[in-house]
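User: What would this chain look like folded?
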Amino acid sequence: MNGDLSGLFPSGSYYWNYATNIVLPIFDARTWAGLKASKVEKEIAVAQYEKAIQAAFREGADALAQKETLGNQLTAQQSLVEATAKTFRLATARYNKGIDPFLNVLTAQRSLYAAQQGLIAIRQAKIANQVRLYAVLGGGADLSTTPGSE
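Assistant: Here's the prediction, encoded as structure tokens.
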């Protein structure tokens, strides 16, 4: 039996040389440097991904918090418009009865207009916030195309 296997791998044969060629590249410094570079690139990609996710959560939380704040501001501003409108009506009635000068009517009207402009600004901000919240939560995203494929 020993004689049968002795000719299978004679000394200096091709198989021994091939085996050493397979082992040698494992210890090549370029391979280790490439491996380290790949690991660093992976860590960078993971860090960028985590950063993007944190930014998305932050934007979503900010938009939701602003929605609540704008809702409260809108309610308060509507109350202010109602109060200044009542003041304007009373000032106009007092002027019509000859009790107050017209300057009081003009002052009340100016206050009413300022309150109405504030209400319009808050409504505009609320609508802009709704659009931003929709976009932050992924609304309107075209998922059929990948970024950068244009």
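The two ends are 69 Å apart (CA to CA). If you want, I can go into more detail on any region.
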